[in-house]
Amino acid sequence: xxxxxxxxxSVSGHIDSVSRPVVALSATSVAKDWEHARHRHRKAQLxxxxxxxxxxxxxxxxxxxxxxxxxxxxxxxxxxSRGAGETECYxxxxxxxxxxxxxxxxxxxxxxxxxxxxxxxxxxxxxLYTLGGREERLLATLLDELVAAPVEDLHLPMPRDLRLRxxxxxxxxxxxxxxxxxxxxxxxxxxxxxxxxxxxxEIGMSFGRWRRQLHxxxxxxxxxxxxxxxxxxxxxxxxxASGFVTMFRKAVGKPPARYLSDRTSGAExxxxxxxxxxxxxxx
Length: 283
Prior knowledge:
Helices cover 39% and strands 24% of the residues. The protein is α+β, with helices and mostly antiparallel strands. Strands 1, 2, 3, 4, 5, 6, 7, 8, 9 and 10 form a ten-stranded mixed β-sheet that branches. The chain starts with a strand and ends in an 18-residue tail after the last helix.
């Protein structure tokens, strides 16, 4: 079995030198948290979370990877990653031309029971497997399932404008801050109208929707680490748990406990709706 320590998930030099279209690795961490600095590799990468929650950040956004989901990172994309809680993850490194119709951008992918079993099986395939043999056919089937897997919108887009980037960093640092949009604009030296227009242009979201997307992502991180719904609701600035649960259900199609229970059990899941957060939902 190709096994590596979780701190070595960016073994880019070694992985890029392996002369096979697909290379599978497994990595298990018993530590509570880990983080890997920004790096890149020629091969695209799939990181599947069997246990624990993963977060991946690139210049344009932050992706959340709950259990039974995976993050797809195209080749040559500079990224950092970190895990929260006891983490068990599996990595797939794929040459850009290994299969048609693979995702061209970063995305969070829902992992079906079949795709999960293929990933676990692939972790036992030697790096230099025989071309044309059973193991290569297994990996080809895995890629077919990967192409067909539904994409989940567990994504927080990040603006490029330096003023908006500062806004994003301040909100990430203190997500419970209830400062009004007008006051946020003043903080970063913009008019409210200009900030709203530039946000919509750069990330395709209103200020209110961007902040709610942030709350859903942070909630998933904390709930997966074992925090209670009540604790998370209060930490994110909600007056009570019911208001938070209502927002979460409207965002992902089911309440937090059911969502995480389905993920942890690996049950056959209907595709989870993308995080569509209508501006009418209050925080």
